[in-house]
Write a structure and sequence with these properties.
It is a single chain. With 172 residues, the chain is mostly beta strands. It has 2 domains: 85 residues; 77 residues, Beta Barrel (OB fold (Dihydrolipoamide Acetyltransferase, E2P)), CATH 2.40.50.100. Helix content is 12%, strand content 53%. The protein contains 3 helices and 18 strands. The N and C termini lie far apart (37 Å).
Amino acid sequence: MISIIGKNMAQATVNDKKIEVHAEGSGVLINQQPLEWDILKLSDRHYHILFQNKTYNAELIKSERDTKSFIFKINGRFYTVNLKDKFDLMLEKMGIANAAANKLNNLKAPMPGLIVDLKVKEGDSVKAGDPLLILEAMKMENVLKSPGDGVIKTVKVKKGDSVEKGHVLLEF
């Protein structure tokens, strides 16, 4: 489960409650407090957790790594977890994520980088949050998601292209 959190995660939203999360060494900090738990991976999707002298059985029900969203079933209750890394938070703070959501004409590169994968092609219908492409920037792979519902009109880049900030990647 720690591999799901990753080293650069900065925020988790668990059933609409925001939590600061940082992986540090072999441990995890939650809201700047060490998370003192014992976790045992039983299988690919099943875990046994000991936390504050209570046991929990956890199952990873759904994993969407592109959108960093997960659904867990813990002792019979479901928890939706959405993760944001420092890059996601930086884009939100700069208003890039919100600005893109208001106007669905095209998708521009938020920073210089390399196109490492295209998830859509011309004519594809997309919904808000769907992964569109992966842009490698500053040695990190960043999934650029659809700001809204629409149809891909034109794909302006191909895998392996280098792009500058503001370069139009897709048209809707």
